C-alpha cells in the first residue's frame, strides 16, 4: 500500500486523516460503525450497506484476505471502508487476493490508519452522520470537502432497494427433495439466505423489488420471503402494499431486517431512524414467547416503534411484538397471531455471525407445512 493521504470528513465538521486504502478518489455516504471482529468480506458485499461508509471497530482488518466464495452479492456494496490497521499480508488457506487490491479493483474508496474507535465514539454520541472519504485528486480544503458532505443526501428518506435488487427473476433450487417453494422479494437479498432455505428443502424464486402481486404469487408458492435491504423502510410503499396483499391472502410469510420493517408497516406499525443502529455479530435478542436469548448478527439503522412484548391490533388481527434487544429495548421481531406471518430485525442467515437464530428458517418451513 502506498502511503498517500486520505481524509474522512464527517458532517459535524471533524476531519480524520489517514492513508488511502483501496481506490483513490471521493466517496459519500452515511458513516456507520460495525463491531464484528470477523466477516468483513460478507459485510462489504451485503447490499444493506449500500450508500454507507462502514467504520470497522476491530483494529486489524484484512488478515484473511479475499476469496471468490464468501461474497453475499455480486459486488462490494459499501460506499466506503474505514479501518485502523490493514493487514500487510493476508494469511488464510482460502484467501485468493488482498482486501486493499479488491477494493481498488472494484473502485471502492477506503481509508486506513485512523483511530476508528475515536470515530465510533463520535458516531455513538452524535449518531450516524453523512460523511465523505477524499483522497488523490479529490483532496481539497476542509471547508469545501465539508460542503460536499453537507450537499449529499441523508439516509432518512432514502429509497434504495431499486439500486440493489435483481433485474431478472432467478431460482435457487432446494438441496435434495423439494419440500416447499418460496417467492422471495429481493430488496437487497444476501446469497446465504436462499442457501439456508435450500438446505431445508426449500426452492427459492427471487424476484425484483418491483414485482407485482401476480408475479410474486405466480405458480402458487408455499410461502413469501421479504429480504433485508438498504434505505429507509418508510419509503418502501410498494413492498408494504404487496405484503398487505400477501397477508390478506394468508400465504405464509417470513421477513428479515428490512423485511421485518416492511411487514411491521403493513401491520400498521411505524418505523424510525435509530441514533446509531445495530451493526455487529454479537447482539443479544430476547424472544418474549420463550424467554430465551439468542446472540445474533445485525445490521440496521431503522427500527420498528412499539413496546417489546406487547400485543397490538392490526388489519389482520393481533400482532405480538415478540422480540427485543436488551441493550436498548428496541423491537427485534413481530409475530402475527391470526395469520401465518412473522419477521425478525436480525439475521438468521448470519453471514458472518453466530448460528443461534438459524432455527427461524425451520420455523418458516413449519409454518408452510401447517398451512
Ligand atoms: N439489513 C437491513 O435489512 C437493513 C434495513 C434498513 N435499511 C435499516 O437500516 O434499518
Automatic annotation (TrEMBL):
Alphabetized UniProt keyword annotations: Amino-acid biosynthesis, Arginine biosynthesis, ATP-binding, Glutamine amidotransferase, Ligase, Nucleotide-binding, Pyrimidine biosynthesis
Carbamoyl-phosphate synthase small subunit N-terminal domain location: 4-134
EC identifiers of the protein: 6.3.5.5
Residues annotated as binding L-glutamine: 48, 229, 231, 258, 261, 299, 301-302
Chain spans, region CPSase: 1-180
Enzyme kind, highest EC tier: ligase
CDD domains: GATase1_CPSase
Entry annotated with the keyword Ligase: yes
Keyword Ligase recorded: yes
Pfam family, one: CPSase_sm_chain
Pathway: Pyrimidine metabolism; UMP biosynthesis via de novo pathway; (S)-dihydroorotate from bicarbonate: step 1/3; Amino-acid biosynthesis; L-arginine biosynthesis; carbamoyl phosphate from bicarbonate: step 1/1
MF annotations from Gene Ontology: carbamoyl-phosphate synthase (glutamine-hydrolyzing) activity
Record-annotated active site: 257 (nucleophile), 347, 349
Function: Small subunit of the glutamine-dependent carbamoyl phosphate synthetase (CPSase). CPSase catalyzes the formation of carbamoyl phosphate from the ammonia moiety of glutamine, carbonate, and phosphate donated by ATP, constituting the first step of 2 biosynthetic pathways, one leading to arginine and/or urea and the other to pyrimidine nucleotides. The small subunit (glutamine amidotransferase) binds and cleaves glutamine to supply the large subunit with the substrate ammonia.
Family to which the UniProt record says this protein belongs: Belongs to the CarA family.
The protein, known as: Carbamoyl phosphate synthase small chain
